[in-house]
Write a structure and sequence with these properties.
Blueprint (H helix, E strand, L loop, with lengths): L6 E4 L7 H6 L1 H7 L3 E4 L3 E3 L9 E7 L5 H15 L2 E6 L3 E3 L5 H9 L17 E6 L3 H7 L2 E5 L6 E5 L2 E4 L15 H9 L3 E5 L3 H4 L4 E2 L2 E6 L5 H16 L5 E4 L8 H12 L4 E4 L17 E2 L2 H11 L5 H12 L5 H16 L1 H17 L6 H14 L14 H14 L8 H11 L8 H30 L20 H14 L4 E2 L10 H7 L6 H14 L5 E3 L2 E3 L2 H14 L9 H22 L10 H14 L5 H31 L3 E5 L20 H9 L13 H16 L1 H6 L1 E4 L1 E3 L6 E8 L2 E8 L14 E3 L8 E4 L5 E3 L3 E3 L9 E7 L2
């Protein structure tokens, strides 16, 4: 297997196709990239902006250039010596009439050859929750009519521009038009599907969906026929050598992830590089028996906070945030409230299905449990789950998952929750496969459905609710991060990297993705708030006062409330372009357009005073107007104050950015560069983070011959230079970074806490890495009072400075005063002494 030395993630669509990507190859080569890491390239729904709504897994999307364009790109990559990693989506497909498999299921129901391809409950009609009203109401309004499908000529229920086929044999041939509303209703009742309002989906859906997205239907890849049908082209591309690796999307959504990965490995062969999108919770490790190289790297983002957060000030920042909120924030209670809402409302149907299964299993075993007590116990078990899922199968529960489950049961047994211990024990027996033979089938279905629900429940509760409600420090509100306040320390980071070297040396290391809540450089900047929390709080208080005339009093309170303004100013500070000034009206307008989209999404994801299902237009307008005012050229006094006040955070953030980059490129794992993030990325949440980068400008920037040899920090050139230099070093010394030990280095002196230092060592090969941290408020000349202590196998050796190319000889210490300023230090061992 060829392990990548550095990957470059490209988001196809949004203006980027195969020909565009082909044109980028010389740039990627110069950047030191070993593998292009592509977002899904298979045919997706019309107008898809991401490609995860696949309609045909065995066709390259014509809108991207089709198979011909793809082959041209693949051939050009091969010629340049760059590999290709494909993002595949085994968990779901688009529930769209453009999907011929799904359309066939709609038309033929259980008789369709694809009826078992999708995860559908066939004990009832297939629900199609795509109407704005109930079927009867839409029919009464005239929104639904019976008419020939313009594409097939066959009778269909037409709902505006969508045509749902009438099942064969359900419509009398002699009477195909002029049907009364009663007759149309009766015809609808004879269909294998039921058209329904989208609002009813959380309660009544008959198929497994991806998270809360009813337009994405679960696929049963656990069935070998389905696996083969959905992986035909994927495996062809791997076996032919076109694709060198695969990224498996949302592996935790599958019925049996391990079994799927084992089959994928068997079919794809031992040389295929495979990673999985898997969120690891606190203390959780990737199952060691999965035949993959590792995860896509969200846990690496979380680990970086140990380097860039000032732990001494977290409590101070928390208290200041509490004062703005108006009461102490109990994050455990907030997490519980978010999960409770998700269980009882957003995932009500999935929760109810589990409850009914549990009742049935109890009846099969002759247990006389109260149904409401079972529902309560099940709810608390779901809420208490601290990780995405366990991995129980018919063969039982893995030992580590059994231990986790019993730990959760002890927590749920707390008297305050009033859960019956015997019912918890009953649910545990189901999950562990310890039921009677008569109940085995239902118990297996319960276990699978339970494990497929805990992941979406965690993701939607934390990432898409809590992280938009609680905004003490936005840099910590990131995918894969722990929502509860914890301590931050360099020693923890070093421990994590040693474990990463042991467990996932070939996993991807990410800092930005298409799903992160903000760009890596915005996060790096916002980490600096923990270095000066009082200064930040004073700024927010002053800015709120300057703009309080734009706060609107609504029946349910002011809009925005002070806690929300804390978030707005923080998000704006993170997204503010480095060179933007209050006088740049066009720049302010461009930022305002992006910020408006972010604010609307943030308000709805928080689900407090408005949400996606029920928009509070007055509230949204008031907050959006407030946000717009912040960036209005007429709001000059505020803009001048804001711009001046965030400068220290901007400059400290740029240092953090370089440190973050150096760590990602030098630490265990395969560094993944998200498109455009080799320079500065201050993006907001999607869709802002999926915008097409200025690749022409990036290529020009990399070609520029800067006199310092490093480039400029303000325009991202220095960061880009670091990426290219370090990615090139990884290509020169693959064994050092794939197999080399991670060695934490001690630092002494007054500024010891302002340095992170480590070495990568493999046999006689070694690289010493030192980078600044927590520099807000420090003099620009650098860290004159910090010495890195070198262990014997690194001391008294000759080294080459990667950036100056100068040879130096070290003693048993590395004096940071030799390197003025806040630039990172990379020293490559020349040879043993």
């Amino acid at each position: 297997m060829k392990i990548p030395t550095a990957t470059y993630r490209i988001q196809f669509r949004n203006g980027l196709n195969f020909d565009t990507a082909t044109g980028l190859i010389p740039y990627l080569k110069q950047l030191g990239i070993s593998h292009l890491y592509a977002s899904p390239v298979f045919t997706a729904t019309s107008g898809s902006t991401h490609g995860y709504d696949v309609t045909n897994a065995n066709e390259i999307d014509p809108t991207l250039g089709g198979r011909e364009g793809f082959d041209r790109m693949a051939q050009a990559l091969k010629a340049a010596g760059i590999g290709l990693i494909l993002d595949i989506v085994p968990n779901h497909m688009a529930a769209s009439l453009e999907n011929i498999w799904w359309r066939d299921v709609i038309e033929h129901g259980k008789k369709s050859r694809y009826a078992r391809h999708f995860d559908i409950d066939w004990s009832r009609r297939l629900t199609l929750p795509f109407l704005g009203d109930a079927f009867e109401d839409a029919l009464e309004k005239g929104d639904i009519v019976l008419t020939p499908d313009p594409k097939t000529g066959q009778p269909a229920f037409a709902y505006f521009d969508t045509y749902y086929p009438v099942a064969p044999g359900t419509l009398t041939a002699s009477k195909t038009d002029g049907l009364s509303k009663t007759e149309l209703t009766e015809l609808h009742e004879r269909q294998p599907y039921r058209l329904m309002c989208w609002r009813d989906a959380p309660r009544e859906l008959s198929y497994r969906r991806f998270f809360e997205i009813t337009g994405l239907a679960g696929v049963r890849v656990e069935d070998e026929v389905v696996f083969d049908d959905t992986h035909r082209l994927i495996l062809e591309l791997v076996r032919s050598g076109v694709a060198d690796g695969l990224r498996v999307d949302h592996v935790d959504g599958l019925a049996d992830p391990k079994a799927y990965l084992e089959r994928l490995r068997e079919k794809a062969g031992p040389d295929c590089y495979i990673t999985v999108e898997k969120i690891l919770g606190k203390g959780e490790r990737l199952p060691p028996d999965w035949p993959v190289s590792g995860t896509t790297g969200y846990e690496f983002i979380a680990s970086l906070s140990d380097v860039l957060v000032n732990d001494e000030n977290i409590a101070v920042l928390s208290e200041l945030y509490d004062s703005v909120v108006g009461k102490p924030v109990d994050m455990r209670n907030e997490l519980r409230a978010a999960k409770l809402m998700m269980v009882e409302k957003n995932f009500e149907g999935e929760y109810t299905t589990l409850w009914k299964l549990a009742n049935s299993i109890a009846g099969t075993g002759g247990a006389m449990y109260d149904e409401n007590d079972i529902r309560t116990a099940l709810r608390e078990l779901l809420i208490a789950f601290p990780v995405y899922r366990t991995y129980g199968t018919e063969q039982g529960m893995p030992a580590e998952d059994t231990a986790l489950l019993h730990k959760i049961l002890r927590k749920v047994s707390a008297p305050a929750l009033a859960v019956q211990p015997e019912i918890l024990a009953f649910l545990a027996r189901i999950l562990c496969g310890e039921t009677s033979a008569a109940a085995a089938s239902q118990a297996g279905l319960f276990r699978t459905r339970f494990q497929q629900l805990t992941g979406p429940l965690m993701a939607k509760s934390v990432e898409d609710t809590l992280f938009f409600r609680q905004n003490m420090e936005l840099a910590l509100n990131e995918v894969g991060a722990e929502p509860l306040i914890r301590t931050f320390s360099l020693s923890r980071f070093h421990t994590e990297m040693i474990k990463r070297r042991e467990e996932q040396p070939a996993a991807l290391s990410a800092t930005s993705t298409h799903d992160t809540k903000r760009g890596e450089d915005a996060r790096a900047r916002l980490f600096t708030l923990t270095e000066a929390p009082q200064d930040w709080a004073a700024c927010v208080k002053r800015w709120h006062r300057m703009n309080e005339s734009k706060v609107i009093m609504l029946p349910d309170g002011p809009a925005p409330r002070p806690a929300l303004t804390w978030m707005l100013y923080q998000a704006l500070a993170g997204a503010w372009p480095v060179t933007l000034t209050p006088e740049d009206e066009q720049g302010l307008q461009e930022l305002d357009e992006r910020f408006q989209s972010f604010v609307e999404k943030a308000l709805r994801e928080a689900k407090l005073r408005t949400n996606w299902d029920n928009n509070n237009e007055d509230y949204e307008k008031a907050v959006l107007d407030y946000a717009h005012h912040l960036l209005s050229a007429e709001n000059r006094l505020f803009l001048q104050d804001f711009h001046a006040s965030i400068q220290p955070f901007i400059h400290a953030g740029l240092v953090n950015s370089l440190t973050q980059t150096v760590i990602k490129l030098m630490a265990p794992g395969v560094p993944d560069i998200y498109q455009g993030s080799e320079a500065l990325n201050f993006s907001l949440v999607d869709p802002d983070n999926r915008r097409l980068p200025d690749f022409t400008g990036l290529a020009r920037l990399l070609r520029q011959d800067d006199k310092t040899g490093r480039g400029q920090a303000l325009n991202g050139q220095l960061k880009q230079y670091l990426v290219a230099a370090l990615a090139g070093l990884r290509q020169q010394k693959p064994a050092l970074f794939q197999q080399g030990d991670y060695v934490p280095l001690s630092v002494t002196g007054q500024h010891a806490e302002n340095i992170i230092a480590f070495a990568r060592v493999h046999n006689d090969d070694a690289v010493i890495v030192a980078a600044p941290r927590l520099v807000l408020g420090l003099p620009a000349r650098g860290l004159p009072q910090a010495e890195i202590v070198l262990p014997p196998h690194l001391a008294y050796r000759h080294y080459r400075d990667l950036f100056s190319d100068k040879e130096i000889t070290l003693t048993d210490q590395l004096d940071m005063a030799v390197w003025p300023g806040f630039s990172p230090v990379i020293l490559i061992a020349s040879s043993p002494s």
